[in-house]
Amino acid sequence: MKTLKHSRHREAIVRFLMTRKDHPTAEVIYNNIKQEYPKISLGTVYRNLSLLAEIGEIQKITCGDSSDHFDANINPHPHFVCKECFRIIDLEMDNLNFLNTLAEKSFDGDVEKHQLIFYGKCPDCKEKALQNQQ
Questions:
Q1: Strand partners, 60
Q2: Burial group, residue 60, by CB count within 10 angstroms (0-12, 13-18, 19+)
């Protein structure tokens, strides 16, 4: 495996993501990293995010709002995506590794990992919908 050269931009992106639980987009990351590195380009942020996701240092989440979102928590965990506001929420659930075993029972290959996303209305959007019905 090829060793990556140290990159202060990549390091800053990971450091920023580790402080977040809201799964920011590349644009949000760029606007925050730009404060520390004013000359960084949006293209540099996109390239580094793609590389970090490819090598497994971060997760890329696609949820239907036409933007990829990013998560520094690479431990297996499901996400919930609100179909109203596109908010992404980490779900705390018991070990779901049995899903890999279950998938392998109907697949003649090796399942290495999975990404589980639930869709619906977040608590805030659910509450708004209830208030609008009254």
A1: 70
A2: middle
- CA distance linking residue 58 with residue 39, whole number of Å: 23
| pLDDT computed for residue 52 by the predictor | 96
Q: d(Cα 65, Cα 44) in Å, to the nearest integer? A: 22
Distance, in Å, from the CA atom of 70 to the CA atom of 49, rounded to the nearest integer, reads 8
Q: Do 58 and 74 contact (CB within 8 A), yes or no?
A: yes
Query: What phi-psi label fits residue 56: left (phi over 0), alpha (psi between -120 and 50 degrees) or beta?
Result: left
Distance, in Å, from the CA atom of 61 to the CA atom of 71, rounded to the nearest integer, reads 8
Which residues of the chain fall below pLDDT 50? 1
| pLDDT tens per residue across span 80-92 | 999 999 899 999 8
Domains of the chain: 1-71 (1.10.10.10), 75-134 (3.30.1490.190)
Q: Is the dihedral of CA 59, 66, 22, 36 positive or negative?
A: positive
Residues 31, 48: Cα–Cα separation, whole Å: 15
Q: Is 25 helix (H, G, I), strand (E, B) or coil?
A: strand
